[in-house]
């Protein structure tokens, strides 16, 4: 195959970023191929496999796993509309219809086509293979995608690589002509007085640019110099003293995680920045990457030095193409200035960082799934034990995976010392957090506050300007869409007092005590106009789509829950559905390889528990009659005789005829 | 007998369902439970492959000793450590036992977990057991009995996946039956070193697949069918041929090369339907090459020799056994001193023992026909004769083949006995053997030698007889009869005994066990052994 020389040069450059394993270059090569040719052809799969000395199936596995890769060409203008909860609350479904109309796409026909039967007489699997709708003239194509991590400016979409936010439904047609991105647009809102901006200090500041000159002018890389003069163990001790807990979702103490690394072993240590921001409702890392990339790099270089890593990767989600470019540029600048590369600032410390782009899979946010993805495989999370990243991580070497915000915090811990940082927030819940508020509030957005310094009520009513006019609060998902939903008016018994929903301080421990979690800081607010069954179905669709399918309960259960809620929303709810839904969720949670099991079952468990009446009114139909007569082995062994007429299921009034008379 | 003293194995105390037991360090939790006769249902776990922990069927409750603040185990009233239980179920396939570990294999939490996983595995399964080849030996069926529901509460449309996919020339996939345990993928990657299988699509749509550029055509591909716990991968050869519960299983040994892989022959009403590997850690583990397991069709060939035949100048065309043997004996006596025997390295020890006797009586030169190929570095040996070792031990493989060939060519040999081998494959031409006064051939299928033979004696194939062979690693193993030889064909040892009888009278050998006994008496390496004592797994012997 004849390929352009500059393309081949890019391929070789990408491969050079992975000295330990060429296979890791699979995703970068697939991205390059799709950029060059518009889609990944069968020939492309074979070529990449040969180039990386892999079997073609190794590459085909990836193309079919990561939704961003297309095996057929799209239109010259390809529009990806986010359909996940916050955008759906913001009108994403109507937006899709309007865009389709403007582009000449027969949306109804497309959706109907999804249900048609195949050549073999089987119905298609709805949603299978991320189908795209193409306009009659073939120029425009469109697809629904899962969360684009800008929930505060919903609805959002991407037009080719250009990100577009706050899309007005009336101007939906304008999307077709978008040639500029909103990704780096500063917001005009000044910080709210209740905020304490540390990590977001430079975000949206007029005149602040992502280049290194600007960063240096604002005191950038001073902490790196300070850190390099310390001993690595001293840095780890400072981070431990700071009480910093991971900002990715699990809230694990960062210093403790670092402490798991055994130094001086035969294997290299790796650091990975988890920039796969993808928990619906969360949109904080996006702004750090797009507006203040050097802050992240400085935090990462310090962290590399602290844990003894000489090579680090930033795993950035595929939907941030501009972010990846900005980071690449920032890395080049840092290299030029000696902050990166061999012998950093003359200290003898070698440090290299590369950007690695994901391709649209939520599961890559799970650290072991991310590691597998970075190794050029399907992002299947690993079993723990034995694969704890600090021991058997990337390439089976000790590896630290930290969230973007966490790594930025490291820089500030060096600046203000661990003890100084620990003074922010509350004990065991130290520092600041960026809370991302989306949904039905007047002023959705990101707000950096000291952890626990503000209650949920203050956040919604004061900082976010309250609910939309004439609306009342109904439900809050406080820590990304997998966090358990909280209902307005609920009371929570804590150790020392009882509080209401709006009194919950936004910290890790109290949120957990109230039965949910602070998670990734994504707060999704819903008002009294919202249908909770519809909302749960939207969340279920996300998790069904994003389940990697590796282990049984999540692979089968997530899709089952979606099918049930989908049927209820469509008017087909049976009286047994709520009980079945809850039991399915119970059978997933705690039984899977990774935390996705909980992530996908907690919404169902909590929506059902908190809003039972909304499910009850939609789940009223009697079950279809059962097949006669079926007995389980225990019944057959224990009972003298077996009734010929099985008891009707559920509360059905139907009485079964004896089997013999049928 | 080994004189080495093994390093002392550290024993670990583990509590399984309330009973304290000891296991060697490094024992998997699931294996410890198996040894304690607490079978943990599982799909993805296979002792020969890595553990991905993906099926979630083997969930158990695990606990570790409660510790005092200074990290000492708290000892309970019974003198055993008190156990702190992990609040959620854990997989038992990926962890080794540890000191003081507690395992509950049948607690309510465990049973509830299994029931949940079982239901998940079946909601999108087609439940087409009546037409599924795996029915009767399917782990989904097996564990459904213990952990399944009598009826389904799944009201939704099932996921549709590819069916009847030819992954390669010998393996067919039904993706709807697949539970995605990835045993096949791991086998191809880790054992066969040919990473051609993978999973395409995502989530509930996941399907096993091979890329069209690199299909599953490896010579060990059928092992994926063996280890597939469900009806997803089926043998294209066996597919839809026979319900497995009608099959009779016979434990015997593969004869396609000197490895002597242990096999199970599955037959019904004297027809072989399939051959599968039989576990033997000392020989083949649990694997078998495709080329070996599919090499049984010739046994039921319509061309099989079923009646003794004699050439017209010696008597009738078709003949009785007695007549044929008498004619053969006469002809051989007539040529005494000028007889040669080409025996086979595919013959059993018992047959070779009698060959040696016959050679001695006739003063004949004897050798086996070597048969070589390329070793595959796995289970296929370069020596494609299964019993070269036995032939050497019993003095039949003598290295005289070249002399025999020369003797036939120069006329110093005038009678040739070909036992299970075609003399034209030994370097003789059809013209060469046409010059011989007498050719006696015992074989199962016609060949160029039987075509020219004066007496043709129909013999039995390896699956039609009992006997023993010695593999290249000096392991004495036993063949068992799976099917009976067609027509009047006879076991080779009987043919040889009766031929000897016709030449020089009684020898007191009434059955195959007698032959082994006689052989063991004369052969120090086999001293003290009998056919029964060899057992199904064979015994290592020491060659002189």
CATH class of the largest domain in chain A: Alpha Beta
Strand content of chain B is 15-25%
Largest sheet of chain A: 5 strands, mixed
Biggest β-sheet strands, sense, barrel of chain B: 6 strands, mixed
Oligomer: heterodimer
Helical content band of chain B: 10-25%
- The total count of strands of chain A amounts to 20
Compute the number of helices of chain A.
24
- Domain count of chain B: the total is 3
Tell me the structural class of chain A: alpha/beta
Q: Kindly report the name of the CATH homologous superfamily of the largest domain in chain A.
A: NADH-ubiquinone oxidoreductase 51kDa subunit
Shape, principal axes of CA atoms of chain B: elongated
State the distance separating the first and last CA atoms of chain A: 66 Å
Number of helices of chain B: 15
Largest interface, counted with CB-CB under 8 A? A-B, 63 and 53 residues
Strand order of the largest sheet of chain A: 2-3-1-4-5
Q: What is the alpha-carbon Rg of chain A in Å? A: 26 Å
Low-pLDDT runs of 5+ residues of chain B are none
According to CATH, the fold-level topology of the largest domain in chain B is: Rossmann fold
Describe the structure.
The complex is a heterodimer of chains A (662) and B (544). Chain A has 662 residues and is an alpha/beta fold. Chain A has a 5-stranded mixed β-sheet, covered by helices on one side. A 5-stranded mixed β-sheet of chain A has the order 13-12-18-14-15. In chain A, strands 8-7-6-9 form a 4-stranded parallel β-sheet, sandwiched between helices. Chain A has 6 domains: 5-63; 77-177, Glutaredoxin (3-Layer(aba) Sandwich), CATH 3.40.30; 212-423, NADH-ubiquinone oxidoreductase 51kDa subunit (Rossmann fold, 3-Layer(aba) Sandwich), CATH 3.40.50; 429-527, Roll (Ubiquitin-like (UB roll)), CATH 3.10.20.600; 532-621, NADH-ubiquinone oxidoreductase 51kDa subunit, iron-sulphur binding domain (de novo design (two linked rop proteins), Up-down Bundle); 629-662, no CATH class. In chain A, a hairpin with a 2-residue loop joins strand 4 and strand 5 (162-164). Chain B contains 15 helices and 23 strands. Chain B starts with 10 loop residues before the first strand and ends with a strand. Chain B has helices at residues 29-35, 108-123, 139-147, 183-191, 222-227, 290-293, 321-334, 349-362, 388-393, 401-410, 430-434, 448-452, 492-504, 512-522, 531-534, and strands at 11-16, 19-24, 59-65, 83-85, 90-91, 101-104, 165-166, 171-173, 197-200, 207-210, 233-235, 248-253, 262-268, 271-277, 309-310, 339-343, 365-368, 415-419, 438-443, 455-458, 467-470, 475-479, 539-540. Chain B is of the alpha+beta class. The mean pLDDT of chain B is 95. In chain B, the strands form 6 sheets. In chain B, strands 1, 2, 3, 4, 5 and 6 form a 6-stranded mixed β-sheet that branches. Chain B has a 6-stranded mixed β-sheet with strand order 15-20-19-18-16-17, sandwiched between helices. In chain B, helix 2 (108-123) packs across helix 3, helix 7 crosses helix 13 and helix 8 packs parallel to helix 13. In chain B, a hairpin with a 4-residue loop joins strand 7 (165-166) and strand 8. Chain B folds into 3 domains: 11-116, Roll (Ubiquitin-like (UB roll)), CATH 3.10.20.740; 126-300, 2-Layer Sandwich (Alpha-Beta Plaits); 309-540, Rossmann fold (3-Layer(aba) Sandwich), CATH 3.40.50.740. The chains are: A alpha/beta (662), B alpha+beta (544). At the A-B interface, helix 4, helix 19, helix 20 and helix 21 of A face helix 2 and strand 9 of B.
């Amino acid at each position: 195959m004849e390929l352009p020389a500059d393309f081949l040069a890019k391929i070789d450059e990408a491969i050079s970023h992975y000295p330990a394993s060429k296979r890791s270059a699979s995703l970068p090569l697939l991205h390059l191929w799709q950029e060059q040719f518009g889609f990944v052809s069968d020939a492309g799969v074979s070529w990449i496999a040969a180039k990386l000395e892999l079997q073609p199936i190794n590459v085909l596995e990836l193309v079919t796993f990561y939704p961003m890769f297309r095996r057929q060409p799209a239109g010259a203008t390809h529009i990806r509309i986010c359909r996940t909860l916050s955008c759906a609350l913001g009108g994403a479904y109507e937006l899709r219809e309007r865009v389709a109309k403007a582009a000449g796409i027969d949306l109804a026909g497309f959706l109907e086509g999804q249900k048609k039967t195949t050549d073999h007489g089987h119905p298609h699997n709805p949603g299978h293979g991320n189908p795209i709708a193409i306009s009659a003239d073939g120029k425009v194509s469109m697809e629904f995608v899962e969360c684009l991590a800008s929930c505060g400016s919903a609805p959002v979409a991407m037009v080719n690589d250009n990100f577009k936010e706050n899309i007005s439904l009336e101007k939906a047609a304008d999307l077709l002509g978008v040639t500029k991105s909103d990704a780096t647009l500063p917001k005009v809102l000044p910080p709210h007085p209740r905020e304490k901006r540390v990590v977001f200090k430079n975000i949206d500041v007029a005149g602040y640019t992502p280049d290194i000159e600007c960063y240096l002018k604002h005191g950038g890389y001073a902490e790196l110099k300070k850190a390099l003069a310390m001993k690595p163990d001293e840095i780890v001790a400072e981070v431990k003293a700071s009480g910093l807990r991971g900002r990715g979702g699990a809230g694990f103490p960062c210093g403790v995680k670092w402490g798991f690394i055994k130094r001086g072993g035969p294997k290299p240590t790796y650091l990975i920045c988890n920039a796969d921001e993808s928990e619906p409702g969360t949109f904080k890392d996006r702004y750090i990457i797009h507006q203040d990339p050097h802050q992240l790099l400085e935090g990462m270089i310090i962290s590399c030095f602290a844990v003894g890593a000489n090579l680090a990767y930033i795993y950035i989600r595929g939907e941030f193409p501009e972010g990846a470019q900005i980071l690449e540029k920032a890395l080049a600048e840092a290299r030029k200035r000696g902050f990166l590369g061999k012998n950093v600032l003359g200290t003898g410390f070698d440090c290299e960082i590369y950007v690695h782009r994901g391709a649209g899979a939520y599961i890559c946010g799970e650290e072991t799934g991310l590691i597998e993805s970075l190794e050029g495989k399907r992002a299947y999370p690993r079993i723990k034990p034995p694969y704890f990243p600090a021991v058997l991580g990337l390439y089976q070497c000790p590896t630290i995976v930290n969230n973007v915000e966490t790594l930025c915090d490291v820089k500030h811990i060096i600046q203000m010392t661990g003890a100084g940082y620990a003074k922010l927030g509350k004990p065991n819940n130290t520092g600041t957090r960026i809370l991302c508020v989306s949904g039905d509030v007047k002023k959705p957005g990101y707000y950096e506050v000291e952890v626990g310094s503000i209650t949920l009520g203050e956040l919604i009513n004061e900082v976010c300007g309250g609910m939309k006019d004439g609306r009342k609060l109904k439900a809050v998902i406080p820590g990304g869409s997998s966090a358990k939903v909280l209902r307005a008016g609920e009371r929570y018994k804590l150790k020392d007092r009882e509080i209401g929903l709006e009194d919950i301080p936004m910290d890790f421990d109290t949120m957990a005590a109230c039965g949910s979690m602070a998670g990734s800081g994504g707060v999704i607010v819903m008002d009294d106009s919202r249908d909770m069954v519809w909302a749960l179905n939207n969340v279920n669709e996300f998790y069904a789509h994003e389940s990697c399918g590796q282990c049984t309960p999540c692979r089968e259960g997530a899709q089952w829950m979606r099918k049930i809620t989908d049927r209820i929303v469509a008017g087909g709810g049976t009286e047994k559905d709520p009980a079945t839904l809850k039991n399915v969720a119970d059978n997933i949670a705690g039984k899977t390889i990774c935390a996705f099991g909980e992530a996908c079952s907690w919404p169902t468990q909590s929506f059902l528990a908190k809003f039972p009446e909304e499910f009850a009114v939609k789940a009223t139909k009697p079950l279809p009659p059962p097949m006669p007569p079926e007995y389980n082995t225990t019944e057959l062994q224990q009972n003298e005789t077996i009734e010929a007429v099985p008891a009707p299921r559920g509360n059905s009034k139907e009485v079964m005829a004896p089997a013999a008379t049928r | 007998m080994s004189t080495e003293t093994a390093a002392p194995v550290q024993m670990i105390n583990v509590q399984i369902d309330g009973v304290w037991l000891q296991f060697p360090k490094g024992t998997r939790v699931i294996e410890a439970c198996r040894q304690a006769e607490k079978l943990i249902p599982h799909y993805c776990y296979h002792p020969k492959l890595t553990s991905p922990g993906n099926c979630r069927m083997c969930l158990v409750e695990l606990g570790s000793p409660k510790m005092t603040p200074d990290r000492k185990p708290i000892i309970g009233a019974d003198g055993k450590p008190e156990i702190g239980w992990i609040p959620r179920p854990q997989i038992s396939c990926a962890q080794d036992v540890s000191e003081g570990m507690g395992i509950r294999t049948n607690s309510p939490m465990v049973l509830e977990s299994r029931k949940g996983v079982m239901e998940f595995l079946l909601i999108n399964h087609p439940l087409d057991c009546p037409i599924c080849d795996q029915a009767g030996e399917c782990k989904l069926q097996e564990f459904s009995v213990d952990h399944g529901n009598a009826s389904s509460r799944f009201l939704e449309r099932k996921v549709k996946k590819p069916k009847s996919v030819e992954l390669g020339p010998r393996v067919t996939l039904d993706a709807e039956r697949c539970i995605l345990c990835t045993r096949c993928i791991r086998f191809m990657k880790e054992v066969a070193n040919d990473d051609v299988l993978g999973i395409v699509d995502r989530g509930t749509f996941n399907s096993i697949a091979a890329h069209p550029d690199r299909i599953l055509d490896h010579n060990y591909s059928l092992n994926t069918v063996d280890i597939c716990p469900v009806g997803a991968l089926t043998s294209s050869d066996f597919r839809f041929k026979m319900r497995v519960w009608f099959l009779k299983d016979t434990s015997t040994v593969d004869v396609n090369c000197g490895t002597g892989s242990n096999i199970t022959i599955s037959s019904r009403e004297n027809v072989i339907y399939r051959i599968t590997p039989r576990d033997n850690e000392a020989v083949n583990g649990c694997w078998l090459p495709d080329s070996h397991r599919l090499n049984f069709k010739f046994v039921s060939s319509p061309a099989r020799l079923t009646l003794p035949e004699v050439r017209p100048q010696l008597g009738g065309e078709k003949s009785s056994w007695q007549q044929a043997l008498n004619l053969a004996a006469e002809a051989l006596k007539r040529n005494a001193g000028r007889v040669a025997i080409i025996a086979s390295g595919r013959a059993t020890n018992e047959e070779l023992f009698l060959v040696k006797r016959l050679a001695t009586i006739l003063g004949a030169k004897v050798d086996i026909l070597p048969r070589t190929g390329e070793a595959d570095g796995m289970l296929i040996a370069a020596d494609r004769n299964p019993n070269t070792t036995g032939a050497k031990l019993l003095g039949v493989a003598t290295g005289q083949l070249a002399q025999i060939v020369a003797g036939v060519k120069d006329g110093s040999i005038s009678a040739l006995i070909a036992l299970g081998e075609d003399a034209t494959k030994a370097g003789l031409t059809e013209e060469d053997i046409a010059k011989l006064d007498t050719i006696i051939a015992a074989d199962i299928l016609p060949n160029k030698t039987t075509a020219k033979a004066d007496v043709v004696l129909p013999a039995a194939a390896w699956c039609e007889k009992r006997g023993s062979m010695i593999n290249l690693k000096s392991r004495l193993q036993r063949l068992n009869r799976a099917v009976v030889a067609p027509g009047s064909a006879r076991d080779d040892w009987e043919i040889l005994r009766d031929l000897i009888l016709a030449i020089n009278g009684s020898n007191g050998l009434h059955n195959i066990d007698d032959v082994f006994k006689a052989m063991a008496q004369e052969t120090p390496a086999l001293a003290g052994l009998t056919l029964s004592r060899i057992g199904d797994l064979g015994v290592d012997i020491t060659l002189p």
